[in-house]
């Protein structure tokens, strides 16, 4: 094997190894998200939702799927994580409910039993910060893991 092909082959193996590390990190992060989450706060375009309106609202994560129930509205879909980005990103693809067929680009942070997610609902692009300002088209959700 000439040296050029050896370098190309080695580069391919390193890229595959990096990909395997990223896959392992995604699987680990995915495992941390599993379960039922309740809403602590919800802000849409800078408007805070009253706590009473959030009572009973949940997000259930199972594998790479989610089900969100808010009042009598249910959203379902799948998601994809990118743990290499800072902040971490999550793409939510809605398969059922009022957002069916839509994809929301979001950022998130996970700290034990606390999960914060800021997502775009106004087709204005992925949020760059954890904030929901007036006319931003962004939703800021703060969730906590439900006790079994």
Annotation keywords:
Lipocalin; alpha+beta; 45% strand; single chain; disordered N terminus; 24% helix; globular; 148 residues; eight-stranded antiparallel barrel
Structure at a glance:
The protein has about 150 residues and is an alpha+beta fold.
Report on this model:
The structure is a single chain. With about 150 residues, the protein is α+β, with helices and mostly antiparallel strands. It has a single domain (about 5-145), classed as Lipocalin. Helix content is about 25%, strand content about 45%. It has two helices and nine strands; from the N terminus they run H-E-E-H-E-E-E-E-E-E-E. It has helices at about 5-35, 50-55; strands at about 35-45, 45-50, 60, 65-70, 75-80, 90-95, 105-110, 115-120, 140-145. It has an eight-stranded antiparallel barrel. It is globular, with a radius of gyration of 18 Å. It starts with a helix and ends with a strand. The relative contact order is 0.17.
Which architecture name does CATH use? Beta Barrel
CATH topology: Lipocalin
Number of strands: 9
Mean pLDDT: 87
- Choose one word for the global shape: globular
Strand order of the largest sheet: 1-3-4-5-6-7-8-9
The level of helicity is 10-25%
Continuous helix count: 2
Low-confidence blocks of residues: 1-18
CATH class equals: Mainly Beta
CA distance, first residue to last residue: 59 Å
Residue fraction in strands: 35-45%
Largest sheet: 8 strands, antiparallel, barrel
């Amino acid at each position: 094997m000439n040296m050029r092909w050896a370098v190309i082959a080695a580069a391919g193996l390193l890229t595959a190894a990096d990909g395997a590390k990223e896959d392992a990190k995604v699987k680990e992060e995915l495992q941390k998200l599993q379960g039922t989450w309740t809403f602590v706060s919800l802000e849409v375009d800078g408007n805070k939702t009253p706590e009473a309106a959030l009572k009973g609202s949940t997000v259930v994560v199972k594998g790479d799927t989610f089900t969100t129930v808010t009042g009598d509205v249910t959203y379902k879909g799948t998601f994809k994580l990118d743990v290499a980005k800072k902040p971490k990103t999550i793409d939510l693809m809605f398969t059922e409910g009022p957002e069916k067929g839509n994809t929301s680009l979001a950022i998130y942070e996970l700290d034990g039993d606390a999960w914060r997610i800021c997502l775009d609902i106004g087709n204005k692009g992925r949020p760059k910060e954890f904030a929901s300002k007036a006319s931003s088209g962004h939703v800021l959700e703060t969730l906590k893991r439900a006790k079994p």
